[in-house]
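Q: How would the structure tokens look for this protein?
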Amino acid sequence: MTASSIKVLVVDDEPPIRRLLRAGLTTQDYDVREAGSVEEALRSIRDGAPDVMLLDLGLPDRNGMDLLAELQGDGAPFPIVILSSRADEAGIVQALELGADDYITKPFGMKEVIARLRVAIRHRLQQQGERPIFQVGGLKVDLVRRIVTVHDQEVKLSPREYDILRILVQHAGKVLTHRFIIHAVWGGIAEAQNLRVHIRQLRQKIEDDPEQPALIHTETGVGYRLQAPD
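A: Here is the predicted structure in token form.
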């Protein structure tokens, strides 16, 4: 999928933000459509689903969370990246748990927006045709044989550590909330502190410098993100 074929729906009630995004994205050959409200967004989607949506949470007619929940309830076939002026962790966590693929807080730079869009689209494509071998930097994970190597040296992980890494690999580039990981790995019965301990142990085994991790990134107050392949 080339940039010129990628349709981006920008849903934001601020015309200056929409103009900024249109200008920045069209220079990269993205096909940009705009909506200033939930109803306009739904009409646009009915006319033809985008490949990815940039969604502001503060819309005039309905809350952006309502649109997100409605789209995910219908099984939205496209990734959704939240644009939010609020840096409150609770709102970000709620959006991610409703199914958003990523979030960007305002003010933002166009390079960041474009990078996040590319990762969200690539993540959705990987989910649709998941690869048995994952590799980023010196880390290689064979999801079929359950073998993890770092710089060609096999690394022994505990079952919990492997389960956490597998979830991160399956969603590489996407922010996973603490609750999402705990539910996937422990069935929802665990404390966030337990997850933090396992993440620390995992970093000790797969990071070149566990004190300055380059693979497993912490999204403060939200969760974790595994570095996606280039």
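Helices lie at 15-26, 38-47, 64-73, 89-97, 110-128, 159-170, 178-186, 192-206.

The first strand starts at residue 7 and ends at 11.

Upvote if useful.
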